[in-house]
Design brief:
Layout: E1 3-8, H1 14-25, E2 28-30, H2 32-42, H3 44-53, H4 60-63, H5 66-85, E3 88-91, H6 95-98, E4 105-111, H7 114-125, H8 129-151, E5 163-166, H9 167-186, H10 192-212, E6 223-226, E7 232-238, H11 241-255, E8 260-266
Parallel strand pairs: 1-3, 1-4, 2-3, 4-5, 7-8
Antiparallel strand pairs: 6-7
Helix pairs in contact: 1-9, 2-3, 5-10, 7-8, 10-11
Domain BON: 199-267
Protein name: Transport-associated protein
InterPro entries: BON_dom (IPR007055), P-loop_NTPase (IPR027417)
Length: 267
């Protein structure tokens, strides 16, 4: 089956549309609350970080902080693991960017005119017009900054998406119907090769998260990527032979028999 990844302006109805579509198809629905629960299970530190840092614009200090990098890596790993399980609606958190190379993922941006969004937020959050407008501006700016900071992508660039839908014009019901039709067209692209590639990508993200959250490793330059041939490459600068050995041991533990390459340099 195809996967749906949704990016949404605040007040465009992303949550409601995502829930309706998930219910129609019997898909899992993964939004911040689902991810918060998952991160709680990883430890109180990560659940607390999620509630403080979720889709907000990080400060300069946070961008280089070990905990922030670990948090982002864990979120990425969770999103990719859900994608591998299939039949899922993923809301926000950079899922559209993380799944750019997955042909059977429908990548959608939901928008609506500001006045429509203000009316919706006033109703949903019991706010007056001015407060609703201010909240929309702040949330949208945070989401744009989150994507730019972590993935160097422009949030409202239509080139990131398969579809850009105006829910103010279409309404929720018609938007859901259009998404159902578009997902059906994507299903034929879920070939065994494409699924294997996604599984390898998820494995690379799992290793990245493991390394980024291990307090014994103090190597902020470590990177993990999947090359075109399917090998997982770990690169960066490490400080000691012991740290290099630890990185290699963790990579072997996480990846098992998967092809691994190391490009680790000593400082």
């Amino acid at each position: 089956m195809a996967i749906l990844a949704v990016s949404r302006e605040y007040g465009s109805g992303g949550r409601e549309i995502g829930r309706r579509l998930a219910a129609r198809l019997g898909y899992a629905y993964v939004d911040k609350e689902r991810l918060f629960q998952d991160l709680d299970h990883r430890g109180k530190r990560w659940g607390r970080a999620a509630r403080e840092l979720d889709e907000v614009c990080p400060t300069l200090w946070e961008r280089h902080d070990w905990q922030y990098q670990g948090y982002i890596s864990l979120v990425e790993s969770l999103i990719l693991d859900y994608a591998v399980q299939d039949r899922v609606v993923l809301i926000g958190r950079g899922a559209v960017i993380l799944l750019q190379g997955v042909p059977f993922c429908l990548k959608v941006r939901l928008t609506a005119p500001l006045e429509v969004r203000v009316e919706r937020v006033m109703l949903e959050e019991s706010l007056d017009r001015e407060a609703a407008a201010q909240l929309i501006t702040r949330v949208d700016q945070d989401r744009a900054c989150y994507l730019q900071t972590n993935y160097s992508k422009v949030w409202n660039d239509a080139g990131n998406y398969d579809l850009v839908l105006n829910t103010g014009r279409l309404g929720y019901d018609q938007t859901v119907e259009l998404l159902l039709a578009a997902l059906a067209e994507k299903e034929s692209l879920a070939t065994p090769g494409a699924r294997d590639r996604l599984a390898d990508l998820a494995l690379a993200c799992r290793l990245k998260a493991r390394l980024a959250t291990d307090s014994r490793i103090l190597a902020p330059t470590l990177k993990v990527r999947l090359d075109d041939g399917g090998a997982i490459i770990v690169s960066g600068v490490i400080h000691t032979p012991k740290e290099m050995q630890l990185v290699q041991e963790i990579a072997g533990e996480v990846c098992g028999s998967k092809a691994l390459q190391f490009d680790l340099k000593r400082r």
